[in-house]
Each structure stands twice: as C-alpha cells, then as structure tokens.
Amino acid sequence: MRVSKRATSAIALSAAAALVASGCSSGDSNDDAAASKDGAITVHGVQPENPLVPSNTTETGGGKVIDWLFTGLVEYPNDGGAPRNALAESINTTDSKVFTIKIKKGTKFHDGTEVKSKNFVDAWNWAAYSPNGAQNGTFFSDILGFEDTYTTDPDGAEGPQKAPAPKSDKMSGLKVVDEQTFEVTLAAPTAVFPTKLGYSAFMPLPDVFFTQKPEEFGKKPVGNGPVKFVSWEDNVLIKLTRFDDYNLRDKMKVKDVDVKLYQDETAAYADLLANNLDFMEVVPTSALAGDKWKTDLGDRGLSTVTPSTALIAFPTYDKRFQNPKLRRAVSLSINRQEISDKIFFGTRKPADSWANPLTPGAKPGNCTACKFDPATAKTLLTEAGGFTGEMVFYYNSDSSHKDWMDAVAQQIKTNLGINARAEGVPTFAVFRQSINAHQMKGPYRAAWQQDYPDVENWVNPLYVTNGSSNDGLYSNKEVDALAKQASAAPSLEASHEAFSKAVELVDQDVPSIPIYFYGQQSGHSEKIKKLELNNVGELDITSVEL
C-alpha cells in the first residue's frame, strides 16, 4: 500500500471523508514556541522496503518518510478541504489534455540547488523508462509517448524472454518551457489526471540524482520538503532534521525527527505509554479490547477513520489460485462482521465495496464477493475442483495482524474444510520483497490506502495488467479496456461511472478479498502539545508543537 497527503483535485473531499485534526491543546506562550523551535520528536516507523526514491516506493514504511522529505506540486489540507497549490504556482488546462504547469520560483532542494521545471520532467521520464525498474512507472501512462518508454516482459519473470528495449527514454508529452514552466500533453483528455499530481511518484528529483545509482541516492536522499535527511541505520533509526531554507507554507515547528524502526508493535506501544515514543499511528489490536487504549492514553489517544482497506490478495501466478470460483469461495466463507466484532471490537467496519467508501467515485456495497455465504462457498469450491494440500495465509508479524489473519484461516478451515492456517513473516520489508518478487506461496495480507482521492486509484494500480501495485499479476483484458475508457472519460462523473463497470468484472474475478475498512486509533506522548493528522491519517510533522 502507498499513502500520501499530497494530491490535487477539482473536487474537495466530502465532510464524511475529512479527518478532524487532533486537538492537543496548549497555550501559545513563548516558552511553548521555544520548546518547539529546538525540540525533537521520535515517531514510530518500520524498515522501508527499498532505498528512498519517490517513484520506486509503493509502501508506507518508506512512503511516510518520502512524504516528509519531498514537497509536490499540490497538497491537501489536513481537514479534507479543497486542495491547494504547494510548489505549483498554477496548473492550467482548457481541454484536460494539455496542461501548463508553472512552479514557484526560489524553492530549493536540500543540497541548495533550485527546484526547476526540468527537475520534474527529468524525474518523470526516469520513472517512465521501464529499464530503470521504478515500481511506480505506470503512473505516467496517461502521458503522450509513455508507450515508447515502457515495455513489459512478455512471458513474466520466470520465462526465457526479456522485455524489448523501449523506443525512447523520454516521453514526447513532456516539454520544458522555461525554468519555472513545463507542459504536459496526455494521450487523451483525462479528467482525473490533475488528481494524481500530488502522489509521491510525481515528486521532483535534484540534478544530483542523475549522477548516482538510484540505490545510492535512496540511502542518502536529497529532497525539497520541510525536513532533510541526516542518516539511516537499517532496522534501527532514520534521522531527519528541519530544512531551514524551506519557504513554502508547511514549515517545521520542531527541529529534529527520529523515525524509530520497530519490529514489534507491542514494544512500540510500551515506549508510547512510557513517553519514550512521541507518536504511534496505530495502536496494537491487543489494546482495543475493552477500550484499553483509552484507559492507557487518556487525552493522549486519538480516533479517526481513514480511506484505507485491509485485503487478502491472491498470487494468481500460482496455478492453484487461478480459478476465480476458488477465490470467490474463499471470500464467501469469511465472516467479516465476526472479525470486526471479536478481533477489532467494532473499531473496523466489514468491507462491502472494492474502493473505500470515503473515496470520491466509490460505490458502496459493490463487492458481492464480500457477503458471508458459506453454502454458496462450498458449492463454488466443488465446482472449482476443490483444493488439495495446505492453504497458508501470510502476513507481516511486526504489526498487529496475527489475530485477524488467524481468524480468517480458521473460518476458511471451518466453512470450507480446507486445511488453512496463517503464518507470519518477521518484517514488513522482507514480506514486501517476497511479494514484489512474485514468490508468495499462498494468499497474503495486503492493504490499500489511497494515494490520491479518486476511485481510479483503487482500480488502475491494483487490477489493471502491469499496474504498479498489481502484485498478484492479475490480468483481465476486459478490465483493462474498461479502465482505459474510464481514465480517458471527459469528466470525473463519466470516469467514475465507467470505472464502476470495470469493478463489476473485478468483483466476478475476485483477485483479492476486501476484509475491513480501517478505523485508526493513535497515540502521542505527554510532551506534544499540539499535532494534526493529515487526510490519510498520518502524522503531519509540520503541525507538531511541544
């Protein structure tokens, strides 16, 4: 899953989608201001999967850090209000096909060089050139000339054939006009395109990036955001500090941010209670029973909802899971309400749609595969030829997933008679590496928290062939065609309606299983006097006051 607070759209999130900023009250005394100015905070994190290159980061461990290190063209207010320009001075179009983007003059990267229009164009071309292997490369597929820069392996990673060399390393639809202006021409009018521009794949890269190997840059990244990189000790700590030359709206109020990389949420929660950890985005499920987290944290506890969904994904590259009747049988055998009640004590809602209902364009209740119907599930399993052997459900054990994954496996075992069990992988980074290498031996825990607020983000990356986060390698040419039609619709309303047709086919194929919609219970230390959560529930570090 990938998240970002920075996106743009002509449509504001609805009030139901808005997150309420945390009301950690304090006075505005000079003492408080001084404490913030030179203060430091430690926040919960996990080891990033890859070096920190924006267009090659698709998960939240690295994604949150990238969102702090970089500033995009636009941003969302934390309360879910209308989007506003960040680095962009203006983004103009008359036909939703050609966009003229002007950036603010005088903003800097952390190495002191000025952010110019070429830093966007060069970064986007690098990501779209498939030999570079950027996981987010397909986010640029709307741009004219993308098909000349991005080719795919015709027989998969295991086959003998290799992807053909692209015709070009630059998209014809990108043009630098001057140092502050660039032009983007799309292959077709695309109403949703502006909505994407705040996602981290679209961040600018400094000139120094192109003089290094990407992995070298990613271990010592140079961004343009409110904090700059200091150091990274794998599985231990990422250190960040305020970028004093930052001159945009969201300036830091504290000086230093340590991202402590935990392998155990219980240990992190103990540190939070002891005031040794200043912010934890999601408390362990063990703290939910009887509202223990409320008793533990008091007014240091926060509760909200986020546009994110927990799923179980199928490795459709494994022949055992290629029959959609089998996948549907597994989904229908899961009692989501029971999991919500007994594991999460009502803090999560059973999923009944493919896109989170907080997302613009999402249609509630369109996941027919999400119903609990063990009788039909048994019939479908028989029609699929049954399942031989053990069905292992994998999850990362450095977060609180064991209880609900065990419950899913037990329900499948009870309701379908399949020998099912859940198995933990020690860390999220290792877990994601196996997923990206297409080496999963069974269904696995997944989650999606929207990168930008539009239903398109719940279809194209996840269910279109070669989508950036289509980790199970699901492919349906009819879904691809409908999604392409939806992406090129003349208005957001038409786009949303067309995407709903694609989702109907996804619902029949069941390449993954929506399980629950996230609720979020967070906590902070006593020394934090004020903070806000952004529109996807992450800590807005620029809001923190001590």
Automatic annotation (TrEMBL):
Residues 83-469 form the Solute-binding protein family domain. It holds the Pfam family SBP_bac_5. Residues 150-170 are annotated as: Disordered. PROSITE patterns: PROKAR_LIPOPROTEIN (PS51257). The keyword Signal applies. SUPFAM superfamilies: Periplasmic binding protein-like II (SSF53850). Residues 1-27 form the signal peptide. InterPro entries: Peptide/Ni-bd, SBP_5, SBP_5_dom. Keywords: Signal. PANTHER family: ABC TRANSPORTER SUBSTRATE-BINDING PROTEIN (PTHR30290:SF83), PERIPLASMIC BINDING COMPONENT OF ABC TRANSPORTER (PTHR30290). This is ABC transporter substrate-binding protein.
